[in-house]
Amino acid sequence: MVKSEPEKSWHVYILINEKAVTYTGITYDVDATRRIDQHNSGKGAKFTRGKGPWKLLYIESNFPGRAQAQSRERAIKADHNFKRQLKNNDHPLPMTSP
């Protein structure tokens, strides 16, 4: 008998630091706080180590699978105008769902 894994929804997030450097990642945590804490403590992605503190700039939620979240992550990383627009606002764009 194969155990079925509970379905996870995936989320794409963008972090920003004091120098306006952005990092885009994915997580299955409904509340991205744990993942942000990992980045800020040096246990997150190699790119974010030593460049914090990081704060949440933007999040898109409820992707049905990891592949869909990774696809959106790649699209965001390639869309320099989108990230520029986020950086130029004093507050993040509304958090959305796909």
Question: Widest sheet: strand order?
Answer: 2-1-3
Tell me the structural class.
alpha+beta
Q: What is the helical fraction, as a range of percent?
A: 25-40%
| Overall pLDDT | 83
CATH topology: GIY-YIG endonuclease
Q: Identify the quaternary structure here.
A: single chain
**Helix segment tally:** 3
How would you describe this protein?
This protein has 98 residues and is of the alpha+beta class. The chain has one domain (10-88): GIY-YIG endonuclease (3-Layer(aba) Sandwich), CATH 3.40.1440. Helix content is 31%, strand content 22%. It is built from 3 helices and 3 strands. It has helices at 33-40, 66-78, 80-88, and strands at 10-16, 22-27, 55-63. The longest helix has 13 residues, at 66-78. The termini are far apart.
Keywords:
three-stranded antiparallel β-sheet; 98 residues; GIY-YIG endonuclease; 3 helices; alpha+beta
Summarize the structure.
By secondary structure, this protein is an alpha+beta fold. Helices cover 31% and strands 22% of the residues.
Topology summary:
Blueprint: E1 10-16, E2 22-27, H1 33-40, E3 55-63, H2 66-78, H3 80-88
